[in-house]
Write a structure and sequence with these properties.
Number of domains: 1
Strand content: 15-25%
Largest sheet: 4 strands, antiparallel
Order of helices and strands: HEEEEEEEEHHHEHHEEH
CATH class: Mainly Beta
CATH topology: Jelly Rolls
Radius of gyration: 23 Å
Oligomer: single chain
Number of strands: 11
Helix content: 40-55%
Shape: globular
CATH architecture: Sandwich
Distance between the termini: 45 Å
């Protein structure tokens, strides 16, 4: 005897086809939407940089890997804008160890930590060759008073800084090691994408030890995590030193991180 459920099943599947087709079409459009969002974000970064140049007289400085932009304890007089390149923000712990607390890219502001007490609390160090702009803080405040667009851009920069700090803390507190490394690579690729740069193959400007320092992991744990991600096909290595990392599908890498969060979310 054929059950009602067996009879209904093919009809249900057929009835769901339009909905499935709609979801497939939506999924097909998603990469295009992502590309459009990234292009729009890259345009906004360029516009913000142009706004700074047209509003305040800046001092341009070319830096190379290892160059110090500013140091902890230095008197605060300027903010800095990353025109090109990547930078690490380093804090010195009470026992004398260095702790990487943030990574900055094109369009990001550096030195916001110095505003409160008129002295920088961290070091800013270039990770590769780039250009940084020194912006006199007093001149910036005056320019913001007459150019609301500049004030908005500056407030947005501070808002992004807070959001990144929260995201970084959540990653360290909630993700296992493999997902933490995956999240770091995904965020690095996303930062490049939002600045109109290549993301399918990225040059990791930090050593394994530095990545571990930033993520609260040992060097060995970072290396094992990268190897596991490679075995899963989520990344690949384009060179023997494993500094050139291929990301075949950034969305898959993001889903890997999301799946790692699912158990923790289910427990809440």
């Amino acid at each position: 005897m054929i059950s009602d459920a067996a009879i209904a099943s093919p009809l249900s599947c057929r009835a769901s086809l339009p909905a499935q087709a709609g979801r497939c079409a939506s999924a097909a459009r998603e990469p295009r939407r992502d590309a459009q969002r990234e292009a729009a974000h890259a345009q906004r970064v360029a516009e913000r940089l142009g706004l700074v140049l047209s509003s305040v007289e800046v001092q341009r400085r070319v830096v190379r890997a290892g160059d110090i932009v500013y140091q902890a304890g230095q008197r605060f007089t300027h903010l800095f804008v990353a025109s090109t390149g990547a930078y690490k923000i380093v804090n010195l712990t009470r026992d004398g160890r260095e702790q990487i607390v943030s990574v900055k890219f094109r369009g990001d502001w550096l030195g916001l930590d110095g505003i409160a007490d008129a002295a920088h609390e961290c070091d800013a160090v270039a990770l590769d060759t780039g250009e940084v702009w020194a912006v006199p803080y007093a001149a910036l405040v005056q320019a913001c008073a007459v150019r609301p667009g500049l004030m908005t851009a500056f407030h947005e920069a501070m808002g992004r800084e807070l959001a990144r700090d929260r995201s970084s803390l959540m990653s360290v507190c909630t993700l296992p090691a493999d997902a933490r490394v995956a999240d770091f690579l995904h965020d690095w690729a996303a930062a490049l994408a939002c600045r109109g740069l290549r993301t399918d193959q990225i040059t990791l400007r930090m050593t394994r030890a530095e990545v571990g320092n930033y993520l609260g992991l040992t060097l060995e744990t970072v290396s094992r995590a990268l190897s596991r991600l490679a075995r899963e096909g989520l990344i690949a290595f384009a060179d023997g030193a494993r500094r050139e990392i291929v990301i075949p599908d950034a969305e898959a890498l993001g889903e890997f991180v999301h799946d790692a969060l699912a158990p923790a979310t289910a427990l809440q």
